[in-house]
Design brief:
The structure holds 2 protein chains of 2 kinds. Chain A contains 10 helices and no strands. Chain A has one domain (about 25-270). Chain A is elongated and about 75 Å long. Chain A is mainly α. Chain B is α/β, with parallel strands linked by helices. Chain B is about 35% helix and about 25% strand. Chain B has 12 helices and 14 strands. Chain B has helices at about 50-60, 85, 105-115, 120-130, 145-160, 175-195, 205-210, 230-235, 255-260, 275-290, 290-295, 305-310, and strands at about 1-10, 25-35, 40-45, 65-70, 75, 90, 165-170, 195-200, 215-220, 220-225, 240-245, 265, 270-275, 295-300. In chain B, a hairpin with a 2-residue loop joins strand 4 (about 65-70) and strand 5. The longest helix of chain B is centred in the middle third of the chain and has 18 residues, at about 175-195. Classes of the chains: A mainly alpha, B alpha/beta. The interface between A and B is large, with 52 and 66 residues.
């Protein structure tokens, strides 16, 4: 056990010596980008341990929905909406629902203390986790999109647009998920909100819009995932109107910035009580 | 190096809802004052709910006190809670943030978030894992480890990225003796080489007696005593603890035993008595001879421990401290 008496230690016992020299030097602060990279890497590695089964669930859910809708929808405008909606649903499942659950549990169990006692900028924790969850959605979204194109006979020429849709819709939905998870007073509530958000993305994103009643359509316009769905769906057209695609993506990006900022604020609030 | 003055935190009353009774206002820390010297292992001892964790949360900047001041190495932590993270390393009771990482990545990431660059973080990670004997399990996720190993891995993460103050909340819970020894020798090395100070939260009396330089005893949010373990024990030096364990029930038909009953703390078959040495000798003579002996399963006679100090100081919790 402890064999070193306190008195013999360097500088031991003389509290006054410190006072005379003023405040001690602080340890370094973790800078934003390196710590963001460290959080991102750590979160990505969690996929190997914990998240893989749920990523499969997300993909199978979307593929199942498309197969169901195949019986109802013949093609054209509606088929595009279904494929785009199902692909973005994977993003909603993982980035919104799972991230809300993760932060809800972290906050509920006191796990946030770990980050709060490290000199790391709040934005690094939130953006690192959000980025990792958005990355988790890449394989599922691509598989869903390719499968959907094959199922409904849609062109695959413009699937590259997913490279913009996933990060932007991912930012918007992950920010929303993180904010919900961090603001919910209890973890169960975070889970509930995450599930509800995903259900909304499912119902409002996958079902073709022109069959919806007016109030539902309004709700659809308020949901950030809608703009990701619309942007993606437009690219299936024979001659996509790129201005509209860019407009939709810009809305996603703007919502992403706002929701991530809110999530960062929520983290600060949750970390120090 | 760490001065605490008049620290007070009150949790507001919670109004009862349907089916759940409300709780009254709780004063979790009540005018707490402490002085922790550089290089010492300072302990906070107290039963569950005594306010140890609330106090630590206020010292680490995780919670704002209602009143009072905390100064660590010349920095005002109440006014600048974010500075705490740059002065101290905190090992909390929860590992949820690290559970799904491998031991190696948990240590490395924590180091990077303490401001180390990749090379330094990896070098320190390797050194600490080696020092604590964690290298063989470095590639395994914390979740898959036993409770003690997981605790040791979290301790390793707390050590990566040097800090002059280590705040450890029950660091050795669930650890086997080998792991405990690894923890205390790692702590000792840092004290000897760099004068690292340790604030240790514990309710393990034996550990408190062996590792602490000084200890503050907390009860209901107040510091009821603060001294070295030996100094505290001197306060009850006149007493001896006698523990009697009966086979089935106490032989109350023996008048001497019946007379003792009022003074004993009963817990099942076990009676605990705090007596003057002469009295204790008489009690032992009584129960080891005659009719009472047939009913006796076991007895011990011991010099006072910190637990006895706690009870003698008027610690209100009936069960005393947890003795592991």
């Amino acid at each position: 056990m402890s064999v070193v008496p306190a008195d013999v230690l360097p500088g031991g016992a003389l509290a006054g010596a410190e006072a005379a020299g003023g405040a001690a030097e602080l340890g370094p602060r973790a800078r934003l980008w390196p710590s963001l990279a460290a959080v991102y890497r750590a979160q990505l590695s969690r996929a190997r341990v914990a998240r893989i089964p749920l990523l499969f669930v997300a993909t199978f859910q979307s593929i199942g929905i498309m197969i169901l809708m195949r019986g109802v929808v013949d093609g054209g405008e509606e088929a595009r909406a279904v494929v785009a909606g199902s692909a973005v649903l994977v993003v909603a499942f993982v980035a919104l629902n799972l991230l809300a659950q993760y932060f809800g549990q972290l906050r509920g169990s006191g796990g946030l203390d770990h980050y709060a006692t490290l000199p790391v900028p709040p934005a690094a924790v939130v953006l690192g986790a959000a980025g990792a969850y958005a990355s988790f959605t890449v394989p599922g979204t691509v598989v869903t999109a390719v499968f959907g194109c094959a199922l409904f006979g849609l062109p695959v020429a413009h699937l590259w647009v997913l490279a913009a849709v996933i990060p932007l819709a991912g930012a918007a939905l992950a920010g929303l998920g993180a904010a919900l998870g961090l603001l919910a007073p209890r973890p169960e509530l975070a889970t509930l909100l995450g599930q509800l958000g995903m259900s909304a993305a499912l119902l409002l994103g996958v079902l073709p819009a022109d069959r919806m009643p007016e109030p539902v359509r309004l709700a659809r316009d308020l949901l950030p995932s809608t703009y990701g769905v619309e942007a993606f769906a437009r690219t299936f057209a024979r001659r996509p109107d790129w201005a509209f695609v860019l407009g939709d993506l810009a809305v996603c990006g703007a919502v992403g910035v706002v929701s991530l900022a809110v999530a960062t604020w929520a983290y600060r609030r949750a970390a120090v009580r | 190096m760490c001065a605490v003055r008049g620290l007070t935190k009150t949790y507001p009353a919670v109004r009862g809802r349907r089916g759940a009774p409300g709780t009254p206002e709780v004063r979790a820390t009540d005018d707490v004052g402490l002085d922790i010297r550089r290089g010492e292992i300072f302990g906070l001892l107290g039963p569950n709910g005594a306010g140890k964790s609330t106090l630590v949360r206020q010292l680490t900047g995780l919670m704002r006190p209602d009143a009072g001041s905390v100064e660590i190495l010349g920095h005002d932590i109440v006014r600048h809670p974010e500075r705490a993270a740059r002065i101290l390393a905190y090992l909390g009771q929860e590992s949820t943030a690290l559970d799904e990482l491998t031991v190696s990545l948990a240590a490395e990431t924590t180091g990077r978030l303490r401001g180390l660059d990749v090379r330094r973080a990896r070098a320190e990670r390797d050194a600490v894992l080696q020092e604590l004997g964690l290298t063989p399990i470095a590639g395994r996720p914390l979740k898959k480890l036993s409770g003690g190993q997981r605790r040791l891995a979290c301790f390793a993460a707390a050590l990566v990225g040097e800090r002059p103050l280590l705040v450890l909340d029950e660091p050795t819970t669930g650890m086997d003796p080998v792991a405990r020894r690894a923890v205390w020798s790692a702590v000792d090395r840092r004290r000897a080489e760099r004068g690292t100070t340790v604030l240790l939260v514990t309710h393990n009396v034996i550990e408190a007696e062996t590792v602490l330089d000084r200890v503050a005893v907390l009860d209901h949010g107040r510091v009821i005593a603060c001294d070295s373990p030996a100094g505290l024990k001197e306060k009850v030096a006149g007493e001896v603890r006698v523990e009697l364990v009966w086979r089935e029930t106490a032989p109350l038909h023996v008048p001497e035993v019946a007379a003792l009953r009022d003074r004993a703390a009963e817990s099942g078959r076990r009676w605990t008595l705090r007596l003057a040495p002469e009295e204790a000798r008489a009690v032992v003579a009584t129960v080891t001879g005659g009719a009472a002996f047939a009913a006796l399963d076991d007895f011990t006679l011991a010099t006072p421990s910190l637990e006895d100090v706690y009870l003698a100081l008027g610690g209100a919790a009936e069960q005393g401290l947890v003795k592991a």
